[in-house]
Amino acid sequence: MIAIIKYNGGNVQSVQNALDRLNAESFVTDDFDLIQKADKVIFPGVGEASSTMKLLKEKGLDLIIPKLTQPVLGICLGMQLMCGNNEEGDTKGMNIFDTNVKKFPSENIVPHMGWNTVSETKSPLFSEISEENDFYFVHSYYCELSKFTTSVCDYILPFSATLQKDNFFATQFHPEKSGKIGNLLLKNFLKL
What we know:
Layout: E1 2-5, H1 12-21, E2 26-29, H2 32-37, E3 40-43, H3 49-59, H4 61-64, E4 72-75, H5 77-81, E5 85-86, E6 91-92, E7 101-103, E8 112-119, E9 133-139, E10 141-143, E11 149-155, E12 157-165, E13 168-171, H6 179-191
Parallel strand pairs: 1-2, 1-3, 3-4, 4-13
Antiparallel strand pairs: 5-6, 7-10, 8-9, 8-11, 11-12, 12-13
């Protein structure tokens, strides 16, 4: 059973729909006990960092998420809030990944929106996914490259497309909106 963390994030329903297509049972919740008992946890996100972090703190989710021991997948803003300092709203994240989130320089179109190539893949999430595949991105802020980087995308500059530390995985792109290749990545997460 997969718990999808409820906190008024934007892409909860599309994540649940993607899991339904994979015949994976899921439920949306902000209940501590249910989250801790789930086999896997997905922390989705579309929105603004500081207001979202405020909601997480009000519910105490900022304290429970870093302590989870089952596989956890952060998506987009979920990934960014699992990092350290975030330039959006000068927000302090949960620091699961000790790396910072910065705004793209405005020398190109921001937000980075659409399909882009992910390379240098080195994560179980990419099992049976060939190198140089395209995934769907929508974001104005990016996670810096770090020792936790498990794949790279280049838009204006190279940034972390995915991160991993222990049982924590994260994608800047939206696997639930990335067609067959995104479904395969979600399947790989479900197999962990």
